[in-house]
Amino acid sequence: MDFDALFQSQLDALKDEGNYRVFADLERRCGAFPKVRNHGPGPDKVTVWCSNDYLGMGQHPDVVGAMVDVAQSSGTGAGGTRNIGGTAHHHVALEAELADLHGKQDALLFSSGYVSNWAALGTLGSRIPNAVILSDALNHASMIEGIRHSRADKVIWKHNDPEDLDRKLAACGDRPKIVAFESVYSMDGDIAPIAEICDVAEKHGAMTYIDEVHAVGMYGPRGGGVAEREGLMDRIDLIEGTLGKAFGTFGGYITGSTALCDFIRSFSSGFIFTTALPPSVAAAAKASIAHLKQSRVERDAQKRQVARLRAKLDAHGIPHLSNPSHIIPVMIGDPVKCRMISDILMEDWGIYVQPINYPTVPKGTERLRFTPGPLHSDADIDHLVAALNDLWSQCALSRQVA
Ligand SMILES: *Cc1c(COP(=O)(O)O)cnc(C)c1O
After folding, report:
1. Quick one: CA dihedral 61, 350, 25, 320, positive or negative?
2. Which terminus of the chain has a lower count of CB atoms within 10 Å, N or C?
3. Mean pLDDT, residues 367-388 taken together
4. Is residue 186 within 6 Å of ligand 1 at its C-beta?
5. What DSSP string describes 303-318?
6. Which of 47, 113, 2, 22 is nearest to 375 (CA)?
7. pTM of the model
């Protein structure tokens, strides 16, 4: 068997469809973000427009300082799993910070947000006898894989539709039910009707599980997410988040009751059998959370730049999905065009925005996803809109009349 030939033929098919992924080779410089050094095709210096380090906390002096200090005082790696020698005081302190952020009794750290969803849903679905998991149709791959791994029954409900959820919960009878959904959906930027979902879940005695990965640090008076902003944190049984996006570091977590966190801690293979986060990473994440709990400067500046970009796109008739979040999807609807526009933006304009193609989004809904932040200047926004305006004329793309 010529395995390489097999690999290559599948890669060639991906390329023909326009769905082959090419990574941008970039180098961040503290203090300069979102301007970065480009090691790939195009100018040396480019502006990043698709980062999930939404608030630029990855270069915040308190956060970088905490990581450097703890690397110097405690060393680099954790040295073991949480159970066998790997628990550092910095993990314990970070878990307390996270429990406080979400108003919960306890929290539990994981290697990433992906692993936290996979491990928590996998454990709940497999260890709760006769459980059924009701999953929003647009849930993230990490939740889908966790549910699949649990081998529990799964029922998919219509995206953001509490009435469909109500009907489907009713059909489950008196089995233990878990309702799994997100707050901010990362590709369309829409936000779940959390209160209505909680009403329906409560009516049927179901547990609620929310992924606030794109909302933590960003929404609510202390950056506790959309559920904090709407005063709903106490109605959600399990809140899951990441330390890798708005908090600018790395890792994932869940928060909930003491019994819930202890249950996942004790039974989840994805928590037990892997080396703990580096203590320096935990310290940096804690510094970032602590900063965003008491500072709204970053959130306010980000909202301003999001509104500014939206208004300028509208003024030029460049179509984008309207939504109540910080994510601005500009729809292209074709994988090859999407890739081409992204290449031209990078090479001719020094603008880095990754094309978002299948399987991240459905075929025919390919898009450029812009995430303006507090560190994008007004001039950066003007430059981006000038570039898009030029491309829209050159490529005869359709405009939207406001
Ligand atoms: C990015 C993402 C995750 C995974 O978080 P990581 O920390 O990057 O592993 C989970 N859920 C959603 C909705 C995400 O977009």
Report:
1. positive
2. N
3. 98
4. yes
5. HHHHHHHHHHHHHTT-
6. 47
7. 0.97
Question: Which residue in the list 35, 104, 245, 286 is annotated as catalytic?
Answer: 245
- Residue 142, ligand 1, Cβ within 6 A: yes
- Ligand 1 atom nearest the C-alpha of 186 is 15
Among the atoms of ligand 1, which is closest to the Cα of residue 244?
7
Question: Which residues contact residue 2 at a Cβ distance below 8 angstroms, ignoring those fewer than 6 apart?
Answer: none
Question: Which ligand 1 atom is at minimum distance from the Cα of 142?
Answer: 10
**Are the C-beta atoms of residues 58 and 33 closer than 8 Å to each other?**
yes
Active site residue 245: yes
Q: Are 228 and 85 in contact (CB under 8 A)?
A: no
Q: Is 270 in the pocket of ligand 1 (CB under 6 A)?
A: no
What are the two backbone dihedrals, phi and then psi, of residue 36, each rounded to the nearest 5 degrees?
-135, 160
118 lines ligand 1 (CB under 6 A): no
Closest CA to 212 of 256, 265, 166: 256
Question: What are the tens digits of pLDDT across the range 143-191?
Answer: 999 999 999 999 999 999 999 999 999 999 999 999 999 999 999 999 9
Contact (Cβ atoms closer than 8 angstroms) between residue 287 and residue 65:
yes
Residue type, 58: G
Residue 402 has pLDDT above 70, yes or no: no
Q: What average pLDDT does this structure show over 29-52?
A: 97
Residue 153 bridge partners (DSSP): 132
User: In which band, very low, low, confident or very high, does the pLDDT at 319 lie, cut at 50, 70 and 90?
Assistant: very high
Q: Amino acid identity, residue 327?
A: I
User: From ligand 1's centre to the CA of 252, what distance in Å?
Assistant: 8
Asked if residue 397 has pLDDT above 90, the reply is no
**283 Cβ below 6 A of ligand 1:** no
pLDDT score at 401: 67
In whole angstroms, give the CA distance from residue 324 to residue 143: 23
